[in-house]
Amino acid sequence: MSLLGTNEFVMDDYNQRVVGYLMDASPKDIIYINELENTGKYSKIIIYTLKDYKQLFEDKGFFEEGNMNGFFRGETVYILSKFLDIPRATSVNVSKEDEIITIVENDDRDIQNNVLSDSFILGYAESKDAEELAALYGKVFKYYPSQVDNPDYLEKNIGDNYFFVYIKKDNKIISAASAMIMPEFSWAEITDCVTDPEFRGNQLLIHIIKEIEKKLLDKNIFSHFSIARSESVGMNMSLKRLGYEYQGRLINNCKIYSGFEDMNLWTKQTDNSN
């Protein structure tokens, strides 16, 4: 991670990308990004920024992939991307992904009265759960954009601003998700969603995400977003049913499940009256 003035850059070598959170962008940021491009280590640059700075990046070959309404002090945050090679810029499953979004957007199922079966136990992960959590991620995902299949990584990072909620059955963790809070922006990403294939179809992640949202509200974090695999009907459907709004598709965003995949962006603004 590198800091440039009030802005933050994350160098993500594993996913061959740089992610910049630039809420006060300037030409100096462009110079720095050019330096990163010239290293040859990255094939995608992703910038989170505000409307006032969009043109600065668009003039340098960036284009909008999604946006998050009202996410920074009431202003819309735009996600702008620049691809540094043709394969990274090429989505190979556009028709399938468009079809999935159409199916999801047309769904009108009401989940407000869903009740978690007594055979499932919901709880918050502690560092002692790192080994079991890591094993579940390793079982489900061949690739994952972060090191959640590494118990040392989880044990080191689980805390107030990166917490996990799980569901257990027969004292075994079978589903989990996390919230990664960025306190400087007052938003949180709901991420690391996983369910053991044996227990899919029980809508476990819906209950987990509801619990995560409650915890975030307690922390006065009212802007939530999640990035779901574009080819996952279930995950996209869950987010839509939970009141999230589809805000764009991030092409070959990260390595997950089978390799580089497109990811759908979902956002939700809530408040303490909900």
TrEMBL record:
- This one is known as Putative beta-lysine N-acetyltransferase
What the entry lists under NCBIfam families is as follows: GNAT_ablB (TIGR03827)
Under the heading InterPro entries, the entry gives: Acyl_CoA_acyltransferase (IPR016181), GNAT_AblB (IPR022525), GNAT_dom (IPR000182)
Occurrences of domain N-acetyltransferase (ranges): 120-271
Q: Which GO terms describe its molecular function?
A: N-acetyltransferase activity
Task: Recite the UniProt keywords alphabetically.
Answer: Transferase
